[in-house]
Write a structure and sequence with these properties.
- There is one protein chain.
- The protein is α+β, with helices and mostly antiparallel strands and 161 residues long.
- The chain has a domain of 105 residues: OB fold (Dihydrolipoamide Acetyltransferase, E2P).
- The protein is 16% helix and 45% strand.
- It has four helices and eleven strands; from the N terminus they run αβββββαββββαββα.
- It has a six-stranded mixed sheet. It has a five-stranded mixed sheet with strand order 3-6-7-5-4.
């Protein structure tokens, strides 16, 4: 019985599902540290436009990335449900601003497929690690390791906590 439960867990992924514009997206829960309500963001001079600035979380300084700006989506009109997802990206902890957080799902690995090849040519598609089919929904899974370029990572690594 114990062996069966271990096998079942390996065949599932836990995904934090969030909204961005009209699309549901997901992050592997293993990279998510916490979800925060919006707070004061301190702007950074000379930062890329999609980096909103920094926040202070328990004496640490974290860069905050707007996924809307990163994906060239117009600003959110009503940010009352917006959240900051604190997660690990390429050995750094950052915040990602999303429209809202929906839920945490367990998705069988068999329901996750690689993105269509045509999407890998498009910039937005290069951030995708796969597509999860859950009931009648398709959830775009993000590959956080590909959200930032090496140059952008170098810029962020200069932010000291």
């Amino acid at each position: 019985m114990l062996q069966q439960k271990k096998t079942e867990k390996k065949e599932e992924r836990e995904i934090l599902v969030f909204n961005l514009q009209d699309e549901q997206m997901g992050l592997d829960i293993s990279c998510v540290r916490e979800v925060l309500r919006p707070q004061e963001i301190h702007p950074l001079v000379h930062a890329p436009d999609f980096i909103e600035g920094v926040i202070y979380v328990r004496k640490f300084v974290l860069a905050v990335i707007s996924l809307r700006k990163r994906f060239h989506i117009e600003p959110l009109k009503n940010a009352s449900k917006a959240r900051i997802i604190i997660c690990k990206v390429n050995n750094m902890i950052v915040g990602l601003i999303v429209d809202s957080v929906v839920e945490v799902l367990r998705v069988p690995v068999r329901n996750i497929q690689a993105p269509p090849e045509i999407l890998s040519v498009q910039k937005k598609g290069s951030y995708m690690s796969g597509l999860a089919k859950v009931d009648q929904r398709v959830i775009t899974l993000l590959d956080l390791g590909k959200i930032l370029t090496p140059e952008e990572l170098a810029h962020l690594s200069g932010i000291k906590s």
